[in-house]
Write a structure and sequence with these properties.
By secondary structure, the chain is an alpha+beta fold. The protein has 2 domains: about 5-75; about 80-255, Heat Shock Protein 90 (2-Layer Sandwich), CATH 3.30.565.10. Helix content is about 40%, strand content about 15%. The chain contains 6 helices and 7 strands; from the N terminus they run ααβααββαββαββ. The protein has helices at about 10-45, 45-75, 85-95, 100-105, 150-170, 225-235, and strands spanning about 80-85, 105-110, 145-150, 170-180, 185-195, 235-240, 245-255. A 5-stranded mixed beta sheet has the order 2-4-5-7-6. A two-stranded antiparallel sheet has the order 1-3. Strand 6 and strand 7 (about 245-255) form a beta hairpin.
Length: about 260
């Protein structure tokens, strides 16, 4: 594994300059390739050729997502905040991963905590592989709302769920528990998975741009970085909870 400290020498200014220019220069040809492949897919009837074209389209989308991560990390847009219901939001999040949950055998659980509850993250509403891919359990009230940019929140929590799915590598459980703090200005969200945890030696680097504990070719390592950036833009943060028994990330979002 490369020395994680090497990644910290890449300055934010250099990243911003690169992402602005390279993002524009790369997105244009990628968009042209994507459009052409989609046109060929509509016209092609041979199953083998269609499968090859689908692979090309998937890889183009992957490259576009990497460029979007670069640009978001370097120059994140200002959030457009509005109030939205968390129960609806969690359902949208579940739906966006429904097929992946089903294929991998992952149960996705949601629980609303009371403000005075300890920061325990276990959701007891569904357990085991039989719950994999099923509708998220909603034990909270419909009145639970968040004042934030909903699109950016979806990017944030998709990044955390993707991280959990990779960490699990197979069947398991991903649980989200959330509550409004007693002072009623900050919402805490805990994202927990039943994986093997994060090795102590890489914990100081997990939020660094470019750092990834996965093998080469699996991405640029921006998932946790962009999650933290988006949380900070909402007056909060994303931190790794080293006191939890399972792998837990604690997200805070301010209502102010």
């Amino acid at each position: 594994m490369p020395d994680p400290s090497e990644y910290r020498s890449l300055s934010p200014e250099l990243l911003a300059e690169f992402s602005a220019g390279a993002g524009h220069d790369l997105n244009n040809p990628l968009a042209a390739v994507s459009g052409r492949v989609q046109l060929l897919l509509r016209e092609e009837t041979d199953p083998a050729k269609r499968a090859d074209l689908a692979v090309i389209l998937t890889q183009v989308k992957r490259a576009q997502d990497m460029i979007a991560d670069l640009r978001l990390t370097a120059r994140p847009p200002l959030p457009e905040k509005k109030r939205f219901r968390l129960t609806d939001f969690w359902e949208k999040l579940r739906e966006s991963f429904a097929e992946r949950f089903r294929q991998q055998g992952v149960a996705f659980l949601v629980r609303e905590l009371k403000p005075e509850d300890p920061s325990e993250t276990g959701a007891e509403t569904q357990t085991g592989k039989e719950a994999a891919g099923t509708e998220a359990a909603k034990t909270g009230t419909d009145s639970s709302e968040l004042f934030a940019d909903e699109t950016q929140m979806m990017v944030l929590f998709r990044a955390l769920v993707k991280n959990s799915l990779r960490a699990l590598g197979g069947p398991g459980e991903i649980a989200i528990s959330y509550r409004r703090r007693p002072e009623n200005t900050v919402t805490e969200i805990f994202v927990t998975d039943s994986g093997t945890g994060i090795p102590a030696e890489i914990r100081p680097f997990i939020f660094d741009p470019y750092f990834s504990s996965y093998q080469s070719g699996r991405g640029l390592g921006f998932g946790l970085t962009k999650a933290r950036i988006l949380a900070k833009m909402h007056g909060g943060d994303v931190v790794f909870d080293e006191t939890a028994d399972q792998t837990t990330f604690r997200v805070t979002i301010s209502d102010t």
